[in-house]
Amino acid sequence: MSQMPTAAPPVDDNHNRPAVALDDVPTAAELGLSPTSARLYNQDLAPTMMKGRRWSAYNIFTLWANDVHSLGNYGFAIGLFALGLGAWQILLALGVGAVLLFLLLTLSGFMGHKTGVPFPVMSRIAFGIHGAQIPALIRGGVAIAWFGIQTYLASLVLRVLLIALAPGLADLDKDSILGLSTLGWASFLALWVVQVVIVRYGMDMIRHYEAFAGPIILITMAALAVWMFAQAGGSIALSTPDALTGGAMWREIFAGGALWVSIYATFVLNFCDFTRSSTTRKSIIKGNFWGIPINMLFFGLIVIVITGAQFKINGVVIGSPSDIVESIPNTFLLVAAALALLILTIAVNLMANFVAPIYALTNLMPKRLDFRKASLVSAIIGLVILPWNLYNNPAVIVYFLGGLGALLGPLFGVIMADYWLIRKTRINVPELYTEVDKGSYFYSKGVNMRAVGAFIPAAIISLLIAFIPALQPVAAFSWFIGAGIGAVAYFIVADRKRQFHDVSGEPIAVPSLH
């Protein structure tokens, strides 16, 4: 085990961080701390200093301004209309989910703000310094597949845009190379390169991009709703003729709210990747308040207007706002709307599907990978898996990605029970980076078997709910069931004889440029 410096150590210019001479920095041993291990610590995994953090309430708000308005979310909410829920029922379903998400994401965000560590390191608290690879790789595996899939979906919008600008390009959209046309490959690779370039400038560039994209998408979606309202003659259909009533209606409302939370199952796990650089706890609360319940109410109103307007016009329930964009008769407006959707999809992909695998890979090989190198590895994997073939294969989506997704609830339950209920937020941050066998998070050879033991039964039940048709009636609530079982199981088996100490990570922290 090698000793690492206890204050901001020097790093390469690629990260644009100020260098500190190692000779001027005391070692961990000189400060009475356990030696940090090079297998657990590097510049990107290290805790961030409290001073100099940059993520404000506005930055957190723009995360949600982008992510809530993703095309996938619109497809989900529009699906509620197609299922027979009317305007107020859709708002209620989204409202129930929004309140729960506000609470869950605020608790998760506080963890990042206090410790300053990314999700793989946060997982070491409950699962152990080596056992943390389990939640990190599950989360990263889900994200890396969806990174490729979302890039592919964005490329479909880009293809529409390119053909609108140059109709002759339609001839390049008729062949097939490994499942994608020539124009499809060009569109996919163009968006792939854009995202790689943005991420290689680090988390601070992502912060700037999200802040830039947020207002654009809010204005665009509001304008699209106004345009559709005018197209429908100033009134909309508030429900379909076969609207649900009674018990069936209420079940779909609460199922919709539960599924709305499940959509964010990935984010409630690794929200600390962003809040580790938040300025204050108040900024998290404020950003979440405006970004989740308020923004989701705005989102719900847009869904109701564009869906109700389209249904009134021709009796058809659209699948996504992109369907409306493709039908815009004015080329200039079509191009503007398509560009906005591209900006949005990139923003969502960066925050939801790119950051997590980067930290997971960095945590796997901190000696060899930093943020920039891991970002390139993640992007290459997202390319070579040919994600369009995954997306077009229902078995892959249901069994592989669905199976991994079913494990996120149990992971969340174990991690949150350990942090809030067992330790009561008392964390020895420096010992998250040591392999000393008496370290707080060494457990048994670096793995907390109690956490693994609590996770396994919760994971099995979650998978059964996801895949057994007879359990379909409770499938919408699978995330809550898995998280609840994981939390209760861990609360029962957790070692309460341990002494928990609250030790700041400032001695080994690095400047925050996130």
TrEMBL record:
Recall the GO molecular function terms of this protein's record.
nucleobase transmembrane transporter activity
Would the keyword Heme turn up in this protein's UniProt record? no
UniProt superkingdom: Bacteria
Q: Which UniProt keywords apply?
A: Membrane, Transmembrane, Transmembrane helix
According to the record, the segments passing through the membrane are: 74-105, 143-165, 177-199, 211-233, 253-272, 292-311, 331-362, 374-391, 397-422, 447-468, 474-493
Q: Which Gene3D superfamilies match?
A: Hydantoin permease
Q: Where is this protein found?
A: Membrane
A Pfam family this chain is assigned to? Transp_cyt_pur
Regarding the membrane, this protein is recorded as: Multi-pass membrane protein
Report whether DNA-binding shows up as a keyword of the record.
no
Q: Name one GO cellular component term.
A: plasma membrane
Against PANTHER family, the record matches this protein to:
NCS1 FAMILY NUCLEOBASE:CATION SYMPORTER-1 (PTHR30618:SF6), NCS1 FAMILY PURINE/PYRIMIDINE TRANSPORTER (PTHR30618)
Q: Which family does it belong to?
A: Belongs to the purine-cytosine permease (2.A.39) family.
Report the protein name in the record: NCS1 family nucleobase:cation symporter-1
Which organism is the protein's source? Arthrobacter oryzae
